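ARCHIVE CARD
CATEGORY: sequence design from structure
SOURCE FIELD: tokenized fold
FIELD CONTENT:
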């Protein structure tokens, strides 16, 4: 049976989310990411890309290339909300799908043509996602993940491209080798030194030559260039942990500053738990000293998503962890052991006023941003870093507040 794999990518996801919040950002250069000296670009609009700005670029360079761009510290809770909306739609519609990141999905439609057209199904899915989320997206469809992903990139922005069966090699042939997933800068530079620019050149090379030059990675590239990719769809599973971290512009020993920031992180993550109807049972605090040594401590707690409980645990762990009194480069907070469910009210500790307060605060944060309401000690924390940066799960999402 011929496989049918659909790749779906939300266009400039972070920027699109911010534009839903603030339509004044439409049609102008927008850059999202860390604004400190060590900050990098997490996402940028197509208007900013015209100036040479791209993801993972140092923010200083991005500002130089596009000085008129609006710089935004992102809101991970806000982005996560829209990612869940899209995930829920796909989960409801698709027979099998893989969530590669917050804004990227693979869907296996193999065999669906027996019942109804895969192409029509994909178009209707796109229309529903746009209608219910307000987010633009692009789709590629072919016999495997590689060709579909390349097709999506060629279709951007807001496009749809189906690569017909039997035309995959011809489709890839004229493209730059940089378009092939897995070809990074180092590999591209080495290929360029060999005189290889186009996919067609690799298609015409002996497989053994690529393997001898690049090892198993070279063999993988040769296969992808020749539209060979049997990799399966990895079924989506709910993540079991979420986290935030912050790299300081200058290494610090300011305990008040670090405590304020960790409380802000704890609040932000707790909000994400409640928005996702999740509870946590494991809290971890991590620090990286100026000499790059890393230490962490964790503690098990009763399942909860309440700020006031989690903040006390975070503070306790930091006090136990920070013993060397050396300058710190990075701090992070993570909640793990996640399970579905709302908070079980503690009849002794949770008053009606406390429950009502949480509901009111969450409404304000979800409507106006995570920094709309925060504890006094967390004010001025100039929040946060990357979502889930130290548990090995994608994606790395910047979570700074609006500049």
């Amino acid at each position: 049976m011929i496989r049918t794999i659909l790749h779906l990518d939300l266009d400039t996801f972070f920027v699109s989310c911010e534009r839903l919040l603030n339509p004044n950002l439409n049609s102008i250069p927008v850059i999202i990411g860390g604004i400190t000296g060590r900050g990098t670009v997490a996402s940028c609009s197509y208007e900013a890309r015209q100036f040479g700005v791209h993801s993972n670029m140092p923010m200083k360079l991005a500002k130089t290339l596009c000085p008129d761009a609006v710089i935004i510290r992102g809101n991970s809770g806000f982005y996560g909300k829209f990612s869940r909306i899209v995930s829920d739609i796909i989960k409801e519609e698709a027979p099998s799908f893989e969530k590669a990141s917050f804004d990227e999905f693979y869907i296996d439609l193999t065999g669906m043509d027996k019942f109804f057209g895969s192409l029509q199904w994909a178009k209707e899915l796109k229309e529903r996602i746009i209608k219910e989320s307000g987010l633009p997206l692009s789709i590629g469809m072919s016999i495997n993940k590689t060709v579909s992903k390349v097709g999506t990139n060629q279709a951007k922005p807001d496009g749809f491209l189906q690569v017909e069966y039997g035309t995959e090699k011809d489709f890839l042939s004229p493209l730059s080798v940089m378009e092939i997933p897995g070809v990074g800068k180092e590999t591209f530079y080495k290929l360029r030194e060999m005189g290889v620019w186009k996919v067609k050149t690799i298609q015409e090379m002996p497989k053994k030559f690529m393997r001898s030059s690049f090892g198993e990675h070279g063999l993988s590239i040769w296969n992808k260039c020749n539209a060979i990719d049997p990799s399966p769809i990895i079924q989506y599973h709910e993540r079991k942990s979420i986290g935030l971290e912050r790299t300081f512009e200058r290494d610090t020993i300011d305990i008040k500053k670090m405590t304020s920031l960790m409380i802000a992180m704890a609040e932000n993550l707790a909000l994400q738990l409640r928005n996702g109807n999740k509870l946590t049972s494991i809290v971890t605090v991590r620090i990286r000293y100026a000499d790059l040594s890393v230490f962490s401590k964790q503690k098990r707690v009763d399942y909860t998503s309440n700020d006031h409980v989690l903040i006390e645990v975070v503070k306790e762990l930091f006090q136990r962890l920070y013993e060397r009194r050396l300058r710190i480069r990075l701090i992070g907070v993570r909640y793990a052991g996640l399970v579905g469910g709302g908070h079980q009210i503690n009849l002794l500790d949770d008053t009606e006023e406390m429950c009502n307060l949480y509901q009111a605060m969450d409404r304000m944060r979800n409507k106006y941003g995570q920094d709309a309401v925060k504890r006094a000690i967390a004010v001025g924390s100039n929040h946060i870093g990357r979502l889930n940066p130290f548990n090995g799960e994608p994606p790395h999402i910047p979570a700074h507040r609006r500049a």
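CARD ANNOTATION: The chain has 14 helices and 15 strands. Residues 343-351, 383-403 have pLDDT under 50 and may be disordered.
SHELF: design records, drawer C
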